[in-house]
Amino acid sequence: MTTLVAFSGSTRSASFHTRVLNSLPTYAPAGMNIALFDLSDVPFYNQDLEGEALPESVVALRAAVAEADGIVFAAPEYNGSYSALTKNTIDWLSRPMGQGVLREKKVMVVSVTPGPGGGKRVSEQIVALMGFFGNTVVGAVTASGIHEKMAADGDVVTDTELADQLRAALAAF
Ligand SMILES: Cc1cc2nc3c(=O)[nH]c(=O)nc-3n(C[C@H](O)[C@H](O)[C@H](O)COP(=O)(O)O)c2cc1C
After folding, report:
1. 48: burial class by Cβ within 10 Å (0-12, 13-18, 19+)?
2. Whether the CB of 145 sits within 6 Å of ligand 1
3. For residue range 86-105, what is the model confidence (pLDDT) as tens digits?
4. What residues pair up with 78 in beta bridges, in sequence order?
5. CA of residue 138 to ligand 1 center, whole Å
6. Which residue from 51, 73, 106, 114 has the least number of CB within 10 angstroms?
7. Rounded to an integer, what distance in angstroms lies between the CA atom of residue 146 and that of residue 166?
8. CB 164 within 8 A of CB 149
């Protein structure tokens, strides 16, 4: 069994990133379990909270990554870069310095935008940062015009090219 933990960098109720993550089991190979981790209780990074004061949500976050075989970051592009939620997640997982659980993991990145950019800028930044931590990026899927590539309701990708890219990235784990 291969276990992936998945993070959406958007808590928006109709988030495309969350909806794409919810669609992933459709494209996963047999024997793969993908668990979406809810980031809404994770506070902003504050070094004062390290140690005994570490919030339960952060303990759970770090444990989920430590126990997973791989990670999926679904990362919205905000002003050409990370959403605060994505960056906050990476910051928590990178600490304590040198002991962070975000290392030597297989990582898939998904960035989608309604506009024409397709999230390529944030995708490139995350790919570079994952390499910095010694992780291996198995796939970086980007898509523009995402509102035309998903069903209006539900978590269904209707665009076959995007679906094939998601399937290939999951197979690469
Ligand atoms: C603060 C902010 C900045 C944004 N900046 C960009 C951007 O630089 N490039 C882009 O293509 N879309 C940008 N967008 C649009 C997002 O791609 C779009 O809102 C997307 O649906 C967000 O992901 P979500 O649906 O998972 O919430 C921005 C949106 C917000 C709220």
Report:
1. exposed
2. no
3. 999 999 999 999 899 999 99
4. 81
5. 24
6. 51
7. 14
8. no
Whole-angstrom distance, CA of residue 136 vs CA of residue 45: 25
Query: Which residues form the domain of 11?
Result: 2-171
Quick check: CB of 25 below 6 Å from ligand 1? no
Ligand 1 binding pocket mutation candidate from 8, 78, 83, 123 (most atoms within 8 A of CB): 78
What confidence tier does 153 reach under pLDDT thresholds 50, 70, 90?
confident
- One-letter amino acid of 1: M
Quote the CA–CA distance of 17 and 82 in Å, as a whole number: 13
- Ligand 1 contact, 173 CB (< 6 A): no
Ligand 1 pocket check for 134: Cβ under 6 Å:
no
Say if CB 92 and CB 32 are below 8 A apart.
Answer: no
Tell me how far the alpha carbon of residue 111 lies from the centroid of ligand 1, in angstroms.
10
Q: Where are the alpha helices (DSSP H) in 12-132?
A: 16-23, 56-67, 84-94, 120-132
Domains held by the chain: number: 1
Q: What are the tens digits of pLDDT across the range 137-151?
A: 999 999 999 999 999
Task: State if pTM tops 0.85.
Answer: yes
Separation of CA 54 and ligand 1 centre (Å): 31
